[in-house]
Design a protein that fits this description.
The chain is mainly alpha-helical.
């Protein structure tokens, strides 16, 4: 029989100072054994649950903010890379159009050189056999939904079985 827990004594938004210190320590030194430290934390189960849920919510928010920041930084990087490529293309085209192969400006020495030739394959099937190799990649991807339906219906499937679901922590 499950024990119903009382309402937490910690008002929303307040975190146990012990948990705050443990999380700060884990963030600063990820090698710490956080679980062991959490096990040594004294307090009522209600206080622990309320503090832990609040801290998890805060950490989820921080992870989401970090993901947005990473996405924004990648976008900025891509924009700058595109601008760099455009400027390079412009400068090369301008110098070639004016028959300039070398120019010195201020502290910059800009030189146009011929790039190494690149190989372009028009049709792989037309290449001589000694210049190609075959790579066969077989990938078996289970049809999870169909397998689950059959197993739930009691039909045995070699190579698959139902696994008992574990516990899921849901914090709202």
């Amino acid at each position: 029989m499950r024990r119903k827990l009382r309402r937490p004594k910690i008002p929303p938004g307040k975190i146990s100072p012990v948990l705050q210190a443990l999380v700060s320590s884990a963030i600063q030194n990820p090698d710490n054994d956080t679980v062991e430290q959490l096990n040594q934390w004294t307090g009522t189960i209600e206080e622990k649950a309320a503090s832990t849920a609040w801290m998890m919510k805060q950490l989820n928010d921080e992870v989401a903010k970090s993901d947005l920041l990473i996405k924004k930084i990648r976008s900025i990087r891509d924009i700058r890379e595109n601008i760099r490529e455009t400027l390079t293309e412009y400068l090369v085209n301008t110098l070639v159009k004016n028959n300039i192969t070398n120019i010195s400006v201020d502290r910059w020495n800009i030189t146009i050189i011929d790039d190494k030739p690149d190989v372009k394959i028009d049709n792989v099937k037309q290449l001589p056999k000694d210049l190609v190799f075959r790579q066969v990649e077989v990938s078996l991807n289970p049809l999870w939904g169909k397998i689950k339906k059959r197993l739930m219906a009691g039909k045995p499937i070699p190579g698959a079985h139902l696994k008992e679901g574990g516990k899921i922590l849901k914090v709202r």
